[in-house]
């Protein structure tokens, strides 16, 4: 009897180890922490205070010089989304001058007035409630959640600090509309403030959305030694030559993701010429492949398998792996094996929206695999996108009967370059369709959040039999 009990306990223990063990694609500890936080967290819009800021500097006037611009649509769209959610929301006019050094509270009606020129600056006929200011984008991130006037009390931990892990604690979503053209010092300041917010709230993320819009007005240089110039999109293709404006969101991961999706679902012009980058601590936002579209028989002489050299994926990450076996059969029953070309989709994400990827940007762990093509494909409905990767396997470089694990990765900095490089303006070559200091801001924020992480990681297994 004792031996039977011992045997039963051993079997159960081994079964338990098998469920928890296996090959991770993205580190299981990070994913486990995020899953725990998601399970314990409230819904995306519960216990949430919203702070919306508008960059009121003179460089923004050109976006509202004509009615119906995409920038004006963005203001109306955000107001509608937040109103429909019935969320406690405060609105802020962001900028500074000799007498103003903090964000100025405005009403919802005044926020909607940001789609008209007087909201920004009237030097010829000054408006008392809308004084002229210059960009000081960090002001929104210096505000506390209590400024929304919400009814939720601030929750603190034993050390007297705000407790972001308490599911009943108020959380904040901050949204800033701007042309993102402060000077070099201000770029570093706002990157530091956003980084601080993410580090104090490990389940938060930041998303930078870029949209090209109609524009007619002055573009001010971030460097005093370069002159102001006039830019006008009249008669030009706005999708290609529109002036970029940006929506910067920081808040709980699920809230930010849902807001971006809902914003993109709106049937408005503002969803055109759209780009995005996500910033998050660690690898929790790494995009992996989605093997749900593959069947057992992928093509002749190729099948999907569950393990390679007795190495099986972690049970929680099976969809993140694709393992295949290729054999000599049929017309190719004798060596050499023909090249195996697979089109592999990623999971959907907003962080792949926009930009052009080339095969040379990817790192591949094994020399018998190459990337032939990489394409960002917009999903039906338009709220996010997938990466479609064409990988080529040369099984002849592996001995028959041998298998290998293969990792195809794209660094977050490489993805940032692909998304934003052609929107970044060289200050020595003025171009209103581009933004000064854009890559400086993106790179600074990326470095402040996490260095050298994988934006994309495709985990593959290949066997030659």
What are the defining features of this structure?
alpha+beta; seven-stranded mixed sheet; single chain; 465 residues; 9 helices
Would you mind describing this structure in some detail?
- The protein has 465 residues and is of the alpha+beta class.
- The chain is built from nine helices and 21 strands.
- The protein has a seven-stranded mixed sheet, with helices on both faces. Strands 10, 11, 12, 13, 15, 18 and 21 form a seven-stranded mixed sheet that branches.
- Helix 5 runs parallel beside helix 9 and helix 8 (412-420) runs antiparallel to helix 9 (438-449).
- The longest helix has 19 residues, at 2-20.
- It is elongated and about 85 Å long.
- Residues 1-19, 30-36 and 149-162 have low confidence and may be disordered.
- The parts where pLDDT drops under 50 for at least 5 residues are 1-19, 30-36, 149-162
**Largest sheet entry:** 7 strands, mixed
Strand order of the largest sheet: 3-2-1-4-8-5-9
Task: Encode the helix/strand succession as letters.
Answer: HHEHEEHEHEEEHEHEEEEEEEEEEHEEHE
Distance between the termini: 45 Å
- Count helical runs: 9
How many strands? 21
Provide the helix percentage.
Answer: 10-25%
Structural class: alpha+beta
Strand content: 25-35%
Mean pLDDT level = 83
């Amino acid at each position: 009897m004792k031996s039977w009990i011992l045997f039963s306990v051993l079997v159960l223990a081994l079964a338990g180890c098998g469920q928890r063990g296996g090959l991770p694609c993205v580190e299981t500890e990070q994913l486990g922490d995020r899953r725990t936080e998601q399970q314990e967290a409230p819904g995306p819009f519960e216990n949430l205070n919203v702070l919306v800021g508008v960059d009121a500097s003179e460089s923004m006037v050109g976006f509202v010089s004509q009615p119906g611009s995409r920038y004006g649509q963005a203001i109306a769209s955000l107001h509608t989304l937040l109103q429909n959610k019935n969320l406690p929301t405060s609105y802020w006019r962001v900028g500074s001058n000799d007498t103003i050094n903090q964000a100025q509270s405005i009403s919802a009606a005044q926020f909607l007035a940001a789609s008209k020129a007087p909201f920004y600056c009237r030097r010829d006929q000054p408006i008392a409630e809308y004084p002229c200011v210059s960009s000081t984008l960090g002001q929104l991130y210096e505000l506390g959640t209590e400024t929304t006037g919400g009814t939720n009390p601030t929750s603190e931990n034993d050390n007297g600090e705000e407790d972001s892990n308490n599911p009943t604690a108020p959380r904040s979503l901050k949204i800033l509309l701007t042309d993102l053209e402060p000077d070099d010092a201000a770029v570093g300041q706002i990157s530091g403030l956003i980084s601080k917010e993410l580090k104090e709230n490990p389940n938060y993320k930041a998303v930078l959305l870029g949209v090209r819009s109609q524009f007619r007005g002055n573009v001010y240089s971030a460097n005093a030694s370069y002159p102001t110039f006039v830019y006008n999109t009249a008669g030009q293709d706005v999708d290609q030559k529109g002036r970029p404006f940006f929506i910067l969101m920081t808040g709980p991961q699920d809230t930010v993701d849902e807001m971006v999706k809902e914003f993109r679902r709106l049937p408005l012009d503002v969803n055109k010429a759209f780009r995005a980058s996500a910033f998050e601590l660690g690898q929790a936002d790494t995009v992996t492949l989605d093997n749900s579209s593959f069947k057992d028989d992928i093509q002749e002489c190729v099948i999907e398998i569950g393990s390679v050299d007795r190495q099986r994926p972690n049970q929680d990450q099976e969809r993140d792996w694709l393992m295949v076996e290729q054999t000599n059969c049929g017309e190719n029953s004798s060596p050499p094996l023909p090249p195996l070309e697979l089109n592999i989709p990623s999971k959907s994400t907003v962080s792949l929206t926009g930009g052009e990827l080339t095969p040379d940007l990817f790192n591949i762990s094994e020399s018998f695999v190459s990337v032939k093509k990489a394409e960002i494909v917009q999903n039906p409905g338009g709220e996010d996108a997938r990466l479609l990767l064409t990988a080529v396997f040369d099984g002849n470089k592996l001995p028959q009967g041998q298998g290998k694990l293969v990792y195809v990765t794209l660094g977050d900095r490489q993805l940032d370059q692909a998304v934003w490089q052609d929107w970044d303006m060289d200050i020595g070559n003025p171009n209103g369709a581009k933004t000064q200091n854009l890559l400086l801001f993106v790179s600074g924020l990326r470095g402040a959040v996490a260095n050298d992480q994988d934006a994309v990681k495709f985990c593959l297994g290949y066997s030659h039999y």
